């Protein structure tokens, strides 16, 4: 019975990853189809920026790793306190070669958004945790709007640079003066 649960989890993770990648295009296709015929080819992403407070869902972690293995450029910004908790996927993502940056404990990095191919924004209250996905009342908004994507991408890039480890100070200013 245990192998069956594992197989179901893998299928669910793959399905969720595919849904996250294709849902915007499918919804757009369904909406436009009512007005006029439309032809569209769906491609898998080539770039993924994740800005997440908590990331402990093994299924989503595996989906992100699979995207990375397929050549998708993945960058992750997260909160330093939550990346160290049991079950966090951040260490596994780093081990897989995915670029990860985190804050330096100056309050929570509390964002929850993803940007796919600099064109699609996925945002809302959802932390990428099993608890949030299975038990919480959460919201996820998927937008393909250049202005919103641009604003969130600017925020991602600003945080990405701010959390550059070469800028971290490991010793308080007073100790450096000695």
UniProtKB/TrEMBL annotation:
<keyword id="KW-0469">Meiosis</keyword>
<feature type="transmembrane region" description="Helical">
    <location>
        <begin position="6"/>
        <end position="31"/>
    </location>
</feature>
<keyword id="KW-0442">Lipid degradation</keyword>
<dbReference type="Pfam" id="PF13091">
    <property type="entry name" value="PLDc_2"/>
</dbReference>
<keyword id="KW-0443">Lipid metabolism</keyword>
<keyword id="KW-0472">Membrane</keyword>
<dbReference type="InterPro" id="IPR025202">
    <property type="entry name" value="PLD-like_dom"/>
</dbReference>
<protein>
    <recommendedName>
        <fullName>Mitochondrial cardiolipin hydrolase</fullName>
    </recommendedName>
</protein>
<dbReference type="InterPro" id="IPR001736">
    <property type="entry name" value="PLipase_D/transphosphatidylase"/>
</dbReference>
<dbReference type="GO" id="GO:0034587">
    <property type="term" value="P:piRNA processing"/>
</dbReference>
<dbReference type="GO" id="GO:0005739">
    <property type="term" value="C:mitochondrion"/>
</dbReference>
<dbReference type="InterPro" id="IPR051406">
    <property type="entry name" value="PLD_domain"/>
</dbReference>
<dbReference type="GO" id="GO:0016891">
    <property type="term" value="F:RNA endonuclease activity producing 5'-phosphomonoesters, hydrolytic mechanism"/>
</dbReference>
<dbReference type="GO" id="GO:0016042">
    <property type="term" value="P:lipid catabolic process"/>
</dbReference>
<keyword id="KW-0812">Transmembrane</keyword>
<comment type="similarity">
    <text>Belongs to the phospholipase D family. MitoPLD/Zucchini subfamily.</text>
</comment>
<keyword id="KW-1133">Transmembrane helix</keyword>
<keyword id="KW-0378">Hydrolase</keyword>
<feature type="domain" description="PLD phosphodiesterase">
    <location>
        <begin position="105"/>
        <end position="132"/>
    </location>
</feature>
<dbReference type="GO" id="GO:0051321">
    <property type="term" value="P:meiotic cell cycle"/>
</dbReference>
